[in-house]
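Protocol step 4 of 6: structure prediction from sequence.
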Amino acid sequence: MDGVNGGGIRPKQRFPLIVRPSSSSIHFLPQELTMADVAFVVTTIAVFALVALVAKGVTKL
């Protein structure tokens, strides 16, 4: 008897060894990351501005 591999039974490969993204995702990836960075910066500035307004309002009490 040749064993499992000699009998023609191969183990299943769960993940491909090399993953290649499609050309469309490579083209839009830097722009998407840039927009995400801009959104993060704008949101952070807005949160700090809101905190400053709340702090200013609390000091007037």
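Step 5 (inspection) to follow. Residues 25-61 form one domain.
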